[in-house]
Amino acid sequence: xxxxxxxxxxxxxxxxxxxxxxxxxxxxxxxxxxxxxxxxxxxxxxxxxxxxxxxxxxxxxxxxxxxxxxxxxxxxxxxxxxxxxxxxxxxxxxxxxxxxxxxxxxxxxxxxxxxxxxxxxxxxxxxxxxxxxxxxxxxxxxxxxxxxxxxxxxxxxxxxxxxxxxxxxxxxxxxxxxxxxxxxxxxxxxxxxxxxxxxxxxxxxxxxxxxxxxxxxxxxxxxxxxxxxxxxxxxx
Length: 236
Hints:
By secondary structure, the chain is α/β, with parallel strands linked by helices. It has a domain of 162 residues: Rossmann fold, CATH 3.40.50. Helices cover 39% and strands 19% of the residues. The chain has a seven-stranded mixed sheet, sandwiched between helices. It is globular, with a radius of gyration of 17 Å. The model has no long low-confidence stretch (mean pLDDT 94).
């Protein structure tokens, strides 16, 4: 859906996807993303959605973060859960080996693997979440990722992503200069916004994958979040 402030969705390839074997570039750009998660409240948005399920979690709970990067979002989740007397053991999964390696400083365990075939048993993790990961997928892959998260989750699935907007794209581009982001981060960050969602699109993506239409919440920093109790049909 396009409008005055909402551009048509883009599916161009991000620069980092074609340089994923350059470990120093990967680490530099993902470190930029980690900082942007603080400035633009990406981590806060994901944790705010997660917090809606704290009352349903056991006191010793588990969380899987798909596409974890450097593990900053699960680390923020641990701190938030602690305020509710919940001890959260976290698993960070990333398809890029160097990220899975460096995320170990922020999570309990790391796994190098694909979100399209999560290496976990059905209903084996309390919370399965992804933050700014879903927009990297499209079509059948997008649906497969959502189904896999639904399959593995026991208590809730949490998705946080970008709200597509010309304002958000321009704001990220302008802020990238004083924040000293790498040029690849600047390019890919703007493109990520243009690959983001509207509320209706995110809801429709979940419905198309698992036949559940959860509420979608707009958050500060042009973020969208949604979550749902996993459907038992996904636990096969």
